[in-house]
Amino acid sequence: QAAPAQAAPAQAAPPATTTTSTPPASPARDQEPKPRLSPAVRRLVEEHGVDLSQLQGSGGGGRITRDDVLAFLERRDRRAPAAPAAAAQPATAPPPAAEPPEPGRATPATDGREELLPLSTMRRSIAEHMVRSVTTAPHAWTLVEVDVTELVGYREAEKEGFRQRHGVALTYLPFVIQVVCDALRAHPHLNATWTDEGILVKHYINMGIAVAVPDGLLVPVIHAADQLGFADLARAIDDLSSRARTKRLRPEDVQGGTFTLNNTGANGSIASGPIINQPQAAILTTERITKRPVVVGEDGIAVRPIMNMCMSFDHRVIDGKTAGDFVNFVKDALERWTPASIRM
């Protein structure tokens, strides 16, 4: 850097009559018009302290654009001198921190406390499908309690005879499927798919039933479930569940579902928030039936078998009222159920 200027020698005091005057400003500079800038460009100029006289506008009439300012800043940064070298680190400087592991990659401990299990094809497929579902559809949930007194009593009384007559177990699922098919006909938006062109409503019902298997979950499909009688539904459930657990499902057995049922109550669950089976609009779970005190009549208390029903739905396709109307249709039908409700 240049040395600081030396102080000038002392001067004699000027005569009292001496006056000073400021030279007139350059007329050309006073009359030079200020460049017109948009608010965004002016803000950018002020933030970076840009001298407008160094810019050549490329816009109409020589107007300075945002790109002009950004290009100038880039050139200025390239010309900027390098920062002074940092002071030498002491010999005792700590070692640099280890780089974090890459996302999605695991590094198990080498002392045997951790184990990395390889992903099966099914596990990887489930993971991809679930992530795609929750990132595609805005999930919303609803839950209702269902008094299944009549249904429980009928099944207990009839399950042995039903097995003898039809060769399969009498579960709660065929009862629920028949009622849900009625509800889907009354509320077809639940039997639909979202598309960018519109909501695609299906006028046929292919019921997916979630089946737990040792290494994951499968959803075989009962095609035209609304066209099957009660005994045929029970046989279809038994057949698909058995073949799912023994890995004998055909590709067509897991394709074309329009709605899914999941009996999470079989695992002891009393409430759940299932993930929608894309590209369907909803999934319904039936939970564990438990005895609970309920109000009957005006002031009476009774112990009744109660089942929670939980539904996840795609909020792009339906709203809360439609979802509530649907689950309450199913609830009312199950609570009013009688043996005459069965369609054999």
Give a short overview.
The chain has 344 residues and is α+β, with helices and mostly antiparallel strands.
Describe what you observe in this structure.
The chain has 344 residues and is α+β, with helices and mostly antiparallel strands. It has a domain at 122-338: Chloramphenicol acetyltransferase-like domain (Chloramphenicol Acetyltransferase, 2-Layer Sandwich), CATH 3.30.559.10. The protein is built from 8 helices and 10 strands. A 6-stranded mixed beta sheet has the order 1-10-9-8-4-7. A hairpin with a 2-residue loop joins strand 5 (211-213) and strand 6 (216-218).
What is the name of the CATH superfamily of the domain at 122-338? Chloramphenicol acetyltransferase-like domain
Order of helices and strands: HHHHEHHEEEEEEHEEEH
Q: Going across the major beta sheet, what is the strand order?
A: 1-10-9-8-4-7
Cα distance spanning the termini: 101 Å
In the predicted model, the low-confidence regions spanning at least 5 consecutive residues are 1-30
Strand content: 15-25%
Helix and strand content put the structural class at alpha+beta
Question: Helical element count?
Answer: 8
Label the CATH architecture of the domain at 122-338. 2-Layer Sandwich
Q: What is the CATH topology of the domain at 122-338?
A: Chloramphenicol Acetyltransferase
Fraction of residues in helices? Answer: 25-40%
The averaged pLDDT comes out at: 85
Q: Globular, elongated, flat, extended or rod-shaped: what is the shape?
A: elongated
Could you name the CATH class of the domain at 122-338? Alpha Beta
What is the number of E strands? 10
Largest sheet: 6 strands, mixed
- How large, in whole angstroms, is the Cα Rg? 38 Å
